[in-house]
């Protein structure tokens, strides 16, 4: 464990905030260019996040937050936990950290030039090592917990696709069971799986997909949206048939339900953001019963383009018809479904913050998942309406983004 940062180091890092605000993205772009030049290291990253700029942007924001809060690192606890969970899912190991440190320090020197004095470089070397040790120690705890849990494992475990089901025109579910036939670690509703998928002529690809099934010792289900330019999602749709074997790491993620459930819950999603909510809905309605679920205020709100793109629609409407949940579904394109079901209300247009505030319980806990723009609107709107951060939960696709780093530090 690195020693605590001294006052001089923290003062220098704080003084670098204006430079990071001006040049942070240039630094992280340069850093990733250096990392990706090493094939052994580049295989650890989701390359699509490099092409669209998400990963460098996310890291630039994370480094800036670290510098801004260097005197009160407790504020970064949520961010550190999410990063550690991601790293464990992707099997990041202590020996990978020196490569990142070398690339980061080299990028700082390259971008800032003569402004990167020896004192500044020494401070950032200490600052990086301190943060690396915090993450390594937390990740070691998570790896141990996974290895020791019944059905748990570390590293990549082979799973076989046992079934695939089209949930809509754009979403396909894959039922996965361990190839060795042994039990698996039951996940916590809201967690995700990480995959190491080899795509022909493209090599190893790392991806995270939310688990859309209720916890079980038998296996997991993921539900994947086909992306027009999605290398892995298109391969799954076109080539991952029943019997295909995939390499999977243990469930990860802190976007989970509280235990016990003590307040009304609003599940607020758009697009494929509904996938972790299927696990939550099925768990709550199975564990506490339909009547109790309805009484506690389990409110499912989802935005989709049309009836053709709505995944899990029949299942949600069946639960709502039984009184297990209250459901509101918004269709931004195309007509409303021809048939209406008791307990489910169909709306034309998009989910708006005005509607959410007017139609949800004042003491609700909000779980939010979907595209970044949707999440920014929902989270900033709820905060502006006075909803405290401890009643906001969120999940972000891909790397940590503006949503996570500036709106969702809780």
Keywords:
410 residues, alpha/beta, Globin-like, Elongation Factor Tu (Ef-tu), domain 3, Rossmann fold, 3 domains, six-stranded antiparallel sheet, six-stranded parallel sheet, 15 helices, 12 strands, globular, FAD binding, heme binding, heme, nitric oxide dioxygenase NAD(P)H activity, NADP
Question: What's the layout of helices and strands?
Answer:
Blueprint: H1 7-15, H2 17-36, H3 39-42, H4 47-51, H5 54-68, H6 77-89, H7 97-112, H8 118-148, E1 157-166, E2 171-178, E3 192-199, E4 203-210, E5 220-225, H9 231-239, E6 245-248, E7 265-270, H10 275-287, H11 290-296, E8 298-304, H12 313-321, E9 326-331, E10 344-348, H13 353-359, E11 365-369, H14 372-384, E12 392-395, H15 402-407
Parallel strand pairs: 7-8, 7-11, 8-9, 9-10, 11-12
Antiparallel strand pairs: 1-2, 1-6, 2-5, 3-4, 3-6
Written overview of the protein:
This protein is an alpha/beta fold and 410 residues long. It folds into 3 domains: 7-148, Globins (Globin-like, Orthogonal Bundle), CATH 1.10.490.10; 156-252, Elongation Factor Tu (Ef-tu), domain 3 (Beta Barrel), CATH 2.40.30.10; 265-407, Nucleotide-binding domain of ferredoxin-NADP reductase (FNR) module (Rossmann fold, 3-Layer(aba) Sandwich), CATH 3.40.50.80. It has 15 helices and 12 strands. It has helices spanning 7-15, 17-36, 39-42, 47-51, 54-68, 77-89, 97-112, 118-148, 231-239, 275-287, 290-296, 313-321, 353-359, 372-384, 402-407, and strands at 157-166, 171-178, 192-199, 203-210, 220-225, 245-248, 265-270, 298-304, 326-331, 344-348, 365-369, 392-395. It has a 6-stranded antiparallel β-sheet with strand order 4-3-6-1-2-5, with helices on one face. The chain has a 6-stranded parallel β-sheet with strand order 10-9-8-7-11-12, with helices on both faces. Strand 1 (157-166) and strand 2 form a beta hairpin. Mean pLDDT is 89; it is low at 290-295 and 399-410.
């Amino acid at each position: 464990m690195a020693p605590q940062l001294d006052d001089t180091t923290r003062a220098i890092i704080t003084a670098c905030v204006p430079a990071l605000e001006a040049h942070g993205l240039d630094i992280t772009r340069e850093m990733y260019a250096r990392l990706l030049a090493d094939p052994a290291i580049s295989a650890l990253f989701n390359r699509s996040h490099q092409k669209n700029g998400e990963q460098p942007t996310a890291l630039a924001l994370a480094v800036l937050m670290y510098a801004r809060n260097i005197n009160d690192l407790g504020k970064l606890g949520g961010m550190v936990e999410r990063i550690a969970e991601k790293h464990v899912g992707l099997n990041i190991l202590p020996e990978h950290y020196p490569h990142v440190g070398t690339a980061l320090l080299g990028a700082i020197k390259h971008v800032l030039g003569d402004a990167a004095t020896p004192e500044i470089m020494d401070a950032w070397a200490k600052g990086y090592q301190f943060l690396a040790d915090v993450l390594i120690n937390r990740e070691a705890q998570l790896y141990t917990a996974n290895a020791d849990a019944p059905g748990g494992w570390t590293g990549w475990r082979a799973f076989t696709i046992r079934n695939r089901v089209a949930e809509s025109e754009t979403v396909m579910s894959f039922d996965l069971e361990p190839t060795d036939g042994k039990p698996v670690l039951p996940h916590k509703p809201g967690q995700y799986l990480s995959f190491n998928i080899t795509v022909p002529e493209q090599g190893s690809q790392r991806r995270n997909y939310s688990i859309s099934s209720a916890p079980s010792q038998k296996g997991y289900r993921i539900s994947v949206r086909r992306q027009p330019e999605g290398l892995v999602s298109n391969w799954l749709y076109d080539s991952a048939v029943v019997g295909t074997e995939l390499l999977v790491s243990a469930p990860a993620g802190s976007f989970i339900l509280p235990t016990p459930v003590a307040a009304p819950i609003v599940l607020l999603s758009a697009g494929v953001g509904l996938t972790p909510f299927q696990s939550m809905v099925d768990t709550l309605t199975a564990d506490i019963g339909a009547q109790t679920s309805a009484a506690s205020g389990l409110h499912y709100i989802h935005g989709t383009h049309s009836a053709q793109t709505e995944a899990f629609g029949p299942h949600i409407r069946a639960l709502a018809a039984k009184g297990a949940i209250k459901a509101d579904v918004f269709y931004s394109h195309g007509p409303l479904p021809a048939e209406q079901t008791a307990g489910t209300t169909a709306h034309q247009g998009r989910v708006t913050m005005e509607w959410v505030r007017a139609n949800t319980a004042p003491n609700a806990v909000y779980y939010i998942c979907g595209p970044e723009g949707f999440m920014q609107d929902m989270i900033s709107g709820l905060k502006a309406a006075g909803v405290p951060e401890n009643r906001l939960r969120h999940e972000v696709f891909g790397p940590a983004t503006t949503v996570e780093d500036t709106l969702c530090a809780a």
